[in-house]
Amino acid sequence: MSGTTFLGMPASPGPRPGSPEAFPSFPEAAAVATLDHKLRANLTHATRTIREKRARAVAELADWAELRAAGKAIKDHTLRRLDRYLLRLEQEVTVAGGTVHWAADAAEANRIVADLVLATGEREVVKVKSMATQEIGLNEALAAEGIIAYETDLAELIVQLGDDRPSHILVPAIHRNREEIREIFAERMASWGRPAPEGLTDSPAQLAEAARLHLREKFLRAKVAVSGANFMVAETGTLVVVESEGNGRMCLTLPKTLISVVGIEKVVPAWRDLEVFLQTLPRSSTAERMNPYTSLWTGTLGPENDGPSAFHLVLLDNGRTSALADRVGRQALRCIRCSACLNVCPVYERAGGHAYGSVYPGPIGAVLTPQLRGTTSGIDASLPYASSLCGACYEVCPVAIDIPEVLVHLRERVAGQGGHGHRLERAAVKAAGLALDHPGLLAAGERLAGKARGLLPERLPGPGRAWTDTRALPELPPEPFRDWWKKNRSRKDSR
Hints:
Number of helices: 23
Radius of gyration: 26 Å
């Protein structure tokens, strides 16, 4: 982010794509989303199916708790020594024939990628599904330079063709049903390349075949690919992408130039660490024992061999160093993007991903986004409150991120910034503290409230209205408990 530092390096100034100021606050967006019955039906069906399958897959492993603890330990160890492992990674990638670039923020990362693509003389790229490139708005930045970026993941393709935004980390088009997808393919595929077949139905097999035919010509034509990575191994310079469709494998092997944009937190120290994450990630995300496609590459093999002859790794900060400095909040950087927390979250299931105003929706987005972007905008200041604090997200997290703890921590930060509502809250808490410190004052207040119970409104005025819009005020008793206790206790003692 502009104004932060990248492991001691000054951040370059520049605007960030997808400015949070363009989005309404979470309560405003959620109020609209929860009225969309089709959206809620799509989300309920999808999340319920995924979480039930995940629970069965996880139950197969007797040592799941130990794997979870190991993943947490590896990530925490790495984050404490991130500078050391990033430099080792740079060294090994370079020895293997790759080139490493350091990007302090979104603007710098976009500039690096655009320049690399333009240097090849090409004007189109194929993309592996990547949260990091969505985070920085890479597609829009490339379009501004006259470069077309084609998404090749099926769900990302649906989102791109529909001029839409992703709403889930793992299943970006989770808010769409099969009929909506058929309509998008039929109406929009032709403007992006090969049109959808005549008579296309909403059969999953036909939709998948239409996507396969549409993408195949792009795979065979593209000379440049852009990817992210699930993991980077410091000791070997190896990058890892896991996926379920094979589109990633096509992008990683067919083009001559491969550019990978990866957040600095994705590094792990050693090859053996993959043994933990390649068990926990697929079970937590797609409820599979292992991913259908696990692609690993180390540098290049040279122009005379198969695969890319040029490999560039763009290491992205974009607020991660700031998050790393927060002793409580930094645990969000453990995230391996499995999306398990989204699928169990009652708030996400009802509001959907677009309400979060970020490419990282759900519980992890509520703690990660405000740390990457700050809490000055309305949407970012509201995200830590987009939770019931039920703790289901922590229970399913494969790297044991205590999301409720970070949410409360960030709420404290937001409250410390001030604002009308927070000033009233502090005043109310101060008044309550005064009453609780003086029992006589508290007792007088309770008696007064009991006598005035018939005058209380059904809804609170001012900022309190948000509470009573969806909740009924508790009914006040005619007398305080302490008075009731004195009368009834004295009767009992007199018997």
